[in-house]
Amino acid sequence: xxxxxxxxxRLHEPGMGDYFALLKPRVMSLVVFTALAGxxxxxxxxxxxxxxxxxxxxxxxxxxxGALNMWWDADIDARMRRTAKRxxxxxRVEAGEALAIGLALSGFSVVMxxxxxxxxxxxxxxxxxxxxAVVYSMWLKRSTPQNIVIGGAAGAFPPLxxxxxxxxxxxxxxxxxxGLIFMWTPPHFWALALFVKSDYGDAGVPMLTETNGRRSxxxxxxxxxxxLVPVALAIGFTSIGGPLYLAVSAILNIRxxxxxxxxxxRDEGQAEADNYETEKAVFRQSxxxxxxxxxxxxxxxxxxxxxxxxx
Length: 311
Hints:
This protein is mainly alpha-helical. The protein has two domains: 12-170, Orthogonal Bundle (Tetracycline Repressor, domain 2); 171-311. Helix content is 77%, strand content 0%. Helix 8 packs antiparallel against helix 9. The chain is flat and about 55 Å long. Pathway: Porphyrin-containing compound metabolism; heme O biosynthesis; heme O from protoheme: step 1/1. One of its GO terms (molecular function) is protoheme IX farnesyltransferase activity.
């Protein structure tokens, strides 16, 4: 039997980077940005310190959701090339540690948001964590090809949360921002699913590409993109929109719709011939689609006092 030295053991001790990776920082960055946008464009201003604490709580809540998701999905992650190096399947963090971190951060973020902002915002954050960790991760992800469609609601709540933190209430503008992310999520993930090939099938995840076929997935990408466009443009005609947002949104949606059309026109032979270049390009485009939409909304609000933004 090979003797394991103390130095070898230390090589496998988790570091801060491993624990931070549990929180899905890339997903957290989108959550923080869209929540900040919802807070900034709201008609009621928060004190800067209270606003900063509120955004921090939302970020921690998003991280808690990520940790709970990684704890539950460790078996799936281990079978997918894209996720096999995550902290739990790679053995750097114990599953029990991830569960404890997720639960602790969930409770902390909800209570602190209630104290820093209001209890309606805290309740929405608690529901968001529950929806992502339980409804999506534990139920939808493994049971239906519509997992991304329904589960996308969890990722759509941050701008609504930011709005409620500032105002203590909901409004059509907040729900339209929710709808923008909700409708964007399916074509974003299905474009990815088209070129990650057998990853989802190997892990037993009923992604649309595996259950309905790749032709059906291409149809769905185009269909949901067509449904996304009017939601994105409608925001431009509300109190938080304006000419700048409309111009940015029109350009982004023309490009995104063109990409979805190109995906729909292709068959698998064409896609394999160029190594799924079109699908990869649409996925990359989808990554900055939301950032530019919400950035334009915040710019409209910033220019409004100078008579340059908004209607």
